[in-house]
Amino acid sequence: xxxxxxxxxxxxxxxxxxxxxxxxxxxxxxxxxxxxxxxxxxxxxxxxxxxxxxxxxxxxxxxxxxxxxxxxxxxxxxxxxxxxxxxxxxxxxxxxxxxxxxxxxxxxxxxxxxxxxxxxxxxxxxxxxxxxxxxxxxxxxxxxxxxxxxxxxxxxxxxxxxxxxxxxxxxxxxxxxxxxxxxxxx
Length: 186
Known about the structure:
Elements: E1 5-10, H1 19-28, E2 35-40, H2 46-49, E3 56-59, H3 64-71, E4 76-79, H4 88-95, E5 99-103, E6 120-122, H5 129-139, H6 141-158, H7 161-184
Parallel strand pairs: 1-2, 1-4, 2-3, 4-5, 5-6
């Protein structure tokens, strides 16, 4: 018997974060599921929480350290958020070698997840497609390992403290140069 994939949902368990989509996905695979499923559901909608099936492990009100510990044991992040500013949860998961399956939303996520390289992007109209990628990762361990490695490398190469500090210094310098040009025009 192969190792079960550890899948996790992380975020507020509410409509905007796609909790209903997560529940539909989990329900559609309950008969064939070879995966363990968990939800980190801090600050959540109680009506949706009541709909979580008993085979989904639920974690509530965890410290950031505990969230990272649970993420480090996961293989897949199921992240069907309909709105996202930057997607910190996705980066946190990727920093723990977790492959994200995300909705294709216009802000944040497209800058982090490159379809087929470090995760999968699924359109809202075709969320069932997430199941195809779950099956693919479940059946191809070398692909799962490669994508986990790519997720970690992406975060390390783009979001380490030195890169972030350099980015902000460049932004400040560019703003100063733009202001000088703007104010020096006569």
